[in-house]
């Protein structure tokens, strides 16, 4: 459809004696566009920059450093099919649909930003649908396995792992937990709608004494702040090392939410 529209524009311009404007999509490659996008200050400052960088490099390597004009939905579908046959180096199992969706979402975001900055004319993959995801995991730790994992974790991870195991909280919710959200006297954590994935606030009871004991042992600044410090980055390498040391196979941090 895009090619047909472009042909009609060219034919109309010739018939009217007008200068034919070059298609910007044909003048820049995916690799060049990736380098431009990753150099934007607003992108560099994102906490997810390393993930964005990785996703875009995978996309360019898998699709090819082609002119943007050649990036069709059919070509993208070939990339997705190939990606699903690959084995994750870190996890040792096939790449999941959610991972491929994340790759494509970052590629689409890059193209949309390029349109906004007039680097290209159109985003030809803007309407492609996500792959259906099945994120249900059946792996649940026994109490003995959890204790092994907890003891294998460095001090910087113990609190994160403890809360993730005993409370229904996501990784980002834990990392960004503030003292203002914790009421030890009443025994609950209150998260506002801006802090949850579905944008709905909720109250989480501190029902286990280990959680209360941990929070009481943490240094609490007079003016509050973040429970796990200003950095608030998850040390995946240290976590995976602890999982391995505990003798646990195929278990990620998200699986602690059972």
UniProtKB/TrEMBL annotation:
Domain Tyr recombinase span(s) in chain numbering: 136-258
CDD domains for the chain: INT_Rci_Hp1_C (cd00796)
Any one biological process term the GO annotation gives: DNA recombination
SUPFAM superfamilies, A to Z: DNA breaking-rejoining enzymes
InterPro entries: CB (IPR044068), DNA_brk_join_enz (IPR011010), Integrase-like_cat_sf (IPR013762), Integrase_catalytic (IPR002104), Integrase_recombinase_N (IPR010998), Tyrosine_recombinase_XerCD (IPR050090)
The entry's keywords: DNA recombination, DNA-binding
Single GO MF descriptor: DNA binding
Domain Core-binding (CB): 28-115
Name of the molecule in the record: Tyr recombinase domain-containing protein
Organism: marine metagenome
């Amino acid at each position: 459809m895009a090619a047909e529209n472009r042909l009609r524009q060219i034919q109309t311009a010739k018939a009217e004696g007008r200068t034919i404007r070059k298609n910007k999509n044909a003048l820049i490659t995916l690799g060049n566009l990736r380098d431009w996008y990753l150099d934007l200050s607003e992108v560099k400052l994102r906490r997810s920059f390393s993930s964005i960088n990785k996703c875009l490099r995978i996309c360019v390597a898998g699709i090819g450093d082609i002119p943007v004009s050649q990036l069709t939905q059919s070509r993208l579908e070939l990339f997705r099919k190939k990606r699903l046959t690959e084995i994750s180096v870190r996890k040792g199992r096939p790449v999941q649909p959610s991972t491929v969706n994340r790759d494509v979402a970052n590629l689409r975001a890059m193209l949309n930003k390029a349109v906004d900055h007039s680097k290209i004319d159109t985003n030809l993959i803007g309407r492609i649908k996500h792959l259906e995801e099945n994120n249900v995991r059946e792996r649940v730790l026994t109490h003995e396995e959890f204790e092994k994992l907890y003891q294998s974790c460095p001090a910087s991870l113990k609190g994160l792992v403890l809360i993730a195991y005993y409370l229904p909280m996501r990784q980002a919710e834990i990392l960004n937990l503030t003292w203002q959200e914790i009421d030890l006297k009443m025994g609950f954590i209150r998260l506002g709608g801006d802090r949850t994935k579905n944008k709905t606030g909720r109250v989480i009871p501190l029902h286990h004494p280990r959680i209360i004991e941990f929070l009481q042992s943490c240094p609490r600044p007079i003016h509050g702040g973040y429970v796990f410090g200003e950095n608030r980055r998850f040390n995946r390498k240290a976590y995976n090392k602890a999982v391995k040391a505990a003798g646990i196979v195929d278990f990620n941090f998200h699986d602690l939410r059972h």
